[in-house]
Amino acid sequence: MTAFPTITLNTGAAMPAIGLGVWQLSEEEAASTVRFALETARYPMIDTAAGYENERGVGRGIAESGRAVDDVFVVTKLNNPDHGYDRALRAIDRSLDNLRLEAVDLFLIHWPLLDDARLVDTWRAFEQIKADGKAKAIGVSNFEVRHLQLLQDAGLTTPAVNQIELHPGFPQLELRAVAAELGIVVTSWSPLGGTSGSGWGPASKPNTVLTDPVIGAIAATHGASPAQVVIRWHLQNGLVVIPKSTSEARILENIDVFDFTLSDVELASITALTSPGRIGADPLLANFGAPTS
Ligand SMILES: NC(=O)c1ccc[n+]([C@@H]2O[C@H](COP(=O)([O-])OP(=O)(O)OC[C@H]3O[C@@H](n4cnc5c(N)ncnc54)[C@H](OP(=O)(O)O)[C@@H]3O)[C@@H](O)[C@H]2O)c1
After folding, report:
1. Which residue among 32, 104, 175, 217 sits deepest, i.e. has the most Cβ atoms within 10 Å of its Cβ?
2. Which of 154, 170, 160 is closest to 139 using CA atoms?
């Protein structure tokens, strides 16, 4: 296996610092893209979710890649309607069946929703899922400080990971500082600034990160692409990064980022960017897909 950098989780496991995101891929696209990413580009990690409705394709892609199960770090997430203790226990079984796995490396609560009591119940189920060996590590996604505090106050397991929207123009400095204090690894979603016109409704913004002039100038200095510079910025900030692409050329490009280093000044100038800001939904407000019973 190519020696990609890893970050140690609070379970002691090593999580690859880079992987492929597969949001908005159909089952068919997921199968062929995951196979290419694993077999040819040698990605060490795949990030999917029950809500992406492509876990079966991901499972097929993994199986067809010929990679050993232990050689690929697989992340999936609980779909929002499956919040609650019993539903979460059933949901992991469906995901494992879809993915053709006996365990995932990391299972995340996809979205906190607005019901704190149910959220705590869901997290208790996650503790059980880990105890049952169905997820080697458990974590959360889109958790703000108050959600992390809720789990701490309930005396429950500290999540291994918080996967949050994070890219140039939205560096999430405060949430990262709290995660660091708690020993939680941060994964950046929409790390390249997201897909123009993606699924965030009227608020969906075009990708302006990859056309940003500051990033473009740094890319020219290094003979790299803007996407490669942005991926370096995440990695050099100690973040896990999961760029999505369905293009074979860009899948290869996005992992070919280990032959140059950004200077502290370059890192700081990217961190200082203030546009585009948040492009997805606000986890303190969004309750989409919440269970109604
Ligand atoms: N937890 C959550 O709530 C959450 C939310 C959103 C996303 N995520 C995860 O994060 C992953 C990544 O986020 P994302 O899919 O929103 O967006 P992203 O990775 O920031 O950006 C993807 C966009 O960039 C393009 N792209 C990729 N590589 C490129 C390159 N080298 N040069 C130019 N353009 C490039 C892609 O087009 P092509 O495909 O045509 O290359 C696509 O339009 C998702 O797939 C998902 O796994 C999680």
Report:
1. 104
2. 160
